[in-house]
Write a structure and sequence with these properties.
heterodimer, A: mainly beta, 6-stranded mixed sheet, B: mainly beta, 7-stranded mixed sheet
Chain lengths: 114, 116
């Protein structure tokens, strides 16, 4: 089955700086890669996703890049703000092969220092 | 975006009792629903995939006789933890998707289960 590795487990950045979280996946057939933000005790919220036919996707301060050859993808947050503090999870998924659950990375606790 | 609800939000029960958790898609019909478990400070682990009108598909290591899943309609799936024990204490989260491929999963708010 799919295995997703996520680094770092904790990331502390100064407000206004950029944050980068990296993930690798094992199954080359995976073709859908969402990122979720989860605040303490709350549900995961989808913040951005990318499909394997695209190398990069951007939505305001958030961007995701995908390198299919190396099987890794990254989340980039620019101009970080205190409300960006949360746990971020990457996930990998084989879409189109029948509905299947997501395989999540272990999460990154992002701390924005004021 | 799509709204998924869960009930109850938290439950405390005695060891040996059964607990039922409901997951509802409020404004769309969910072809598939998923059940995840999340232990404190850990990631979400998929337990099972639930399709309306058919038997759930369980992940390796998840006991189907202990975690009963019923997906009776396109908007409701239930997870029953039978004969709960303290080690079953966890945060149980469902997700639902409109697509057949499993993309675009929207999560419920989760249910905090504590077994005494």
């Amino acid at each position: 089955g799919e295995n997703v590795e996520q680094h770092p487990s904790t990331l502390s950045v100064q407000e206004g700086d950029s944050a980068v979280i990296k993930c690798t996946y094992s199954d080359s057939a995976s073709n859908y890669f969402p990122w979720y933000k989860q605040e303490l005790g709350k549900r995961p919220q989808l913040i951005i996703d990318i499909r394997s036919n695209v190398g990069e996707k951007k939505d305001q301060r958030i961007a995701v890049t995908l390198n299919k050859t190396a099987k890794h993808f990254s989340l980039h947050i620019t101009e970080t703000q205190p409300e960006d503090s949360a746990v971020y999870f990457c996930a990998a998924h084989l879409s189109g092969g029948g509905a299947d659950g997501l395989t999540f990375g272990k999460g990154t606790h992002l701390i924005i220092q004021p | 975006g799509a709204v998924v609800s869960q009930h109850p939000s938290r439950v405390i029960c005695k060891s040996g009792t059964s607990v039922k958790i409901e997951c509802r898609s409020l404004d769309f019909q969910a072809t598939t629903m998923f059940w995840y478990r999340q232990f404190p400070k850990q990631s979400l682990m998929l337990m099972a995939t639930s399709n309306e009108g058919s038997k759930a598909t369980y992940e390796q290591g998840v006991e189907k006789d202990k975690f009963l899943i019923n997906h009776a309609s396109l908007t409701l799936s239930t997870l029953t933890v039978t004969s709960a024990h303290p080690e079953d204490s966890s945060f149980y989260i469902c997700s639902a998707t409109q697509t057949s491929g499993g993309e675009g999963q929207f999560f419920g708010p989760g249910t905090r289960l504590t077994v005494l």
